[in-house]
Amino acid sequence: xxxxxxxxxxxxxxxxxxxxxxxxxxxxxxxxxxxxxxxxxxxxxxxxxxxxxxxxxxxxxxxxxxxxxxxxxxxxxxxxxxxxxxxxxxxxxxxxxxxxxxxxxxxxxxxxxxxxxxxxxxxxxxxxxxxxxxxxxxxxxxxxxxxxxxxxxxxxxxxxxxxxxxxxxxxxxxxxxxxxxxxxxxxxxxxxxxxxxxxxxxxxxxxxxxxxxxxxxxxxxxxxxxxxxxxxxxxxxxxxxxxxxxxxxxxxxxxxxxxxxxxxxxxxxxxxxxxxxxxxxxxxxxxxxxxxxxxxxxxxxxxxx
Length: 305
Known about the structure:
This protein is of the alpha/beta class. The protein has nine helices and eight strands.
């Protein structure tokens, strides 16, 4: 595990001004997130406390390929990294004629954008992991460490500088039933309307070494059904995307196994084209999902299927 090699690099498809374009996605090995307490997050496995700014520069240079959009993920907040490295990224993005840069940050760090304004001559989108607009759920089911008001202030700041905000919402944090998770996500989508330019719905997956994994091993947690993702996407009424990590596996969002591949593919296609007709899908397990959404609120124990 070298400090000069990125964790992963790949080209994927991304929405950009209504078109579908190539996007270079880069996951850098950094020192990680200073908060590092979220119950579902296992990204600490991709970090190294010995990473230096020069290491990050070498990682980034190794990852660079031609595309229209570039995403830079850091297993933490981009604006928590040294300004020297942020400036290096901005210079490379400009030199290689990327039209858009996507980064992620906790709310408290986005204000460092003020230091970087003279370097950014391309479209910038800042993803913020709000997870839910419900402060109780965010504090007690996720342990995120900030409030909805913190998010609102940071989102308004980013947009006031002429940049885009992507908000990450978590579908089915631990301790919520399937129905509660759907209702929480839909309410959160409604609450962030006007604060974010795009919503990214992230269904929970079971990552190693997390509290969620402990619950899952004891059969006290089941990742969301793919049908639940479809339900939220269909009913949101905003530009919303989802890329269900681990779809079809027991650790990731899944249905019955027979339809997982076609439903997860439809979710990704919808994320690119925003066309609800993509969800003209059928499977026998849909009725089972409907019954679980109805009954699980009363059982208070996950109905594992």
